[in-house]
Specification:
The chain has 80 residues and is α+β, with helices and mostly antiparallel strands. Helix content is 29%, strand content 19%.
Length: 80
């Protein structure tokens, strides 16, 4: 990783950005103090929210037994 001065970063930013796009990394220093790191930006795909209507998992299927009518015993239980 190459260390560059703030003056170099200011005067050659376009060149450094092209190098960063190619995968290089740079540390920007003010005098002897390291102050910043210039690295390629990588968006995290897991942070993306699904679009409206987009399916993110298979649809849930309701079992037919869940929609079956209640038996007489079950109805009596609910009437109490």
């Amino acid at each position: 990783m190459q260390v560059i001065s703030t003056e170099e970063a200011e005067s050659n930013l376009t060149r450094f950005l092209a190098s960063v796009e190619a995968g290089e990394e740079f540390v920007i220093a003010r005098g002897q103090k390291l102050v910043a790191k210039l690295v390629p930006f990588a968006a995290k795909p897991s942070d993306a929210r699904p679009k409206v209507g987009e399916m993110i998992s298979p649809p849930f299927e309701v079992p037919t037994a869940a929609l079956a009518p209640l038996t007489l015993d079950e109805l009596k239980h609910w009437e109490q």
